[in-house]
Amino acid sequence: MANNPSSSKLQQQLLTCSLCFLLMVNLSHKIVQSAEAAPDKDGWTTSLNESSSTRSSELCSSSSSIDTATFLPPPYSNITMACTPLWNDFVLRYHKGEDNVMTFVLSVVYTSGWVGMGFSKNGLMVGSSAVVGWVTKKGTPMVKQYYLQGSKQSQVVADAGELDLNHIPPAAVLHPPHIYLAFQAKFDRPLLKQPIILAFGTKYPGHHHYRLSHHDDKTTILFDFSAGPESAVVIDAGEMKRNHGVLATLGWGVLLPAGAIVARYLREKDPLWFYLHSIIQFLGFLLGLAAVVLGQKLYMETNNAQLLPHRGIGIFILTLAILQILAFFLRPNKESKIRRYWNWYHAWIGRAALFFAAVNVVLGIHMGHAGTAWKVMYALILTTILVTVITLEALQRLRWRPEKNTDDINNHHPHASNLQMNSNAIL
């Protein structure tokens, strides 16, 4: 019995879809790994790797570390603490006491301004409480607890917060070239994996209400207090969040709209438009898939329930994108009767994906408190895309109008073309 040609073609298309999907998953996994291992501005990776382990031994080893008992006030000088570096020159010493009482000593290289350590419930700055210390120009040490009501400078409130400082006075000690910020806090339950916010500013807090200047740099770290100093897992959630935003913006917010523009306005360049459209959309899908995978890992690490809408829309966009990829390999021939319906499906699913992608990028920037630079950047991207689409759409309709007018004249006056030819011949 002869094989059915249409059946064998369908099987071949399904096999191609499966192989391409596995390839895309593998490539996205590699992209996520490279994004997670991306170094920050000082060349440090976002987790404890070989180079950071060397730095750990240098900063916390008994042979090279400073004896804090010689200059810290009691009870901080009387407690044996575990030690681990966190980020840049930030080093954390901590001790687990009874009744969920934790003792912390944060140290960092200091010249001026303030340093702070915040405790977040969900990895975000807003809603967290922070202990901030500095030494004034006159040499007076200062320690204040702040409550971060919002991302604006006026919403960082001094002498407020949810940390129970256990009635033990905190201390700020300048032991050049480091400043040491020591405090005790009592928690409702044992600390396990805790999002910690680290920040510093080079300007001194204001004299009026001790208002903090804007931070020069900050990061969010998920620190595992249950693992101990030797096996502590330090994950830079701030760097992971930035990588997620970059991948999502480039994939969903730049490449996919660019591919759609190519498909609509470069049809005269056949088959160049088809190959450009396919390549651009494929690259955009890979970056978007990597962003979703990295975002899912970030969600699992921080367990931030406030990001559920952003996460749900992201998974929905990924589903639409996968349907588009599958539709590409299963598209019918141009002569097929159902090709028209396939075109409608492909166009409107694509438009829906682009719309929700733009909404989700804006939502992610807002919920992640990415800052003004991200807002301006994506506003420029959206403006560029909209201006490009409006301009190309207007030019396309202007090209269509003369063609339509010519067709109308020929349809209403069948001899018009002959008359025009005769008149030209006479002239």
From TrEMBL:
Regions crossing the membrane: 245-266, 273-293, 313-330, 342-365, 377-395
Entry's Gene Ontology cellular component terms: membrane
Top-rank lineage group of the source organism: Eukaryota
Compositional bias of kind Polar residues: 417-427
Record localization: Membrane
Boundaries of every Cytochrome b561 domain copy: 206-401
InterPro entries for this protein: Cyt_b561/ferric_Rdtase_TM (IPR006593), DOH_DOMON (IPR045266), DOMON_domain (IPR005018)
PROSITE patterns documented for this protein: CYTOCHROME_B561 (PS50939), DOMON (PS50836)
Region Disordered, residue ranges: 40-61, 406-427
Stated name of the protein: Cytochrome b561 and DOMON domain-containing protein
Keywords noted in UniProt: Electron transport, Membrane, Signal, Transmembrane, Transmembrane helix, Transport
Classification via PANTHER family: CYTOCHROME B561 AND DOMON DOMAIN-CONTAINING PROTEIN, OS01G0680900 PROTEIN
Keyword Membrane on entry: yes
Signal peptide segment: 1-37
Residues of the DOMON domain: 88-201
Organism: Linum trigynum
Ranges annotated as biased composition (Low complexity): 46-61
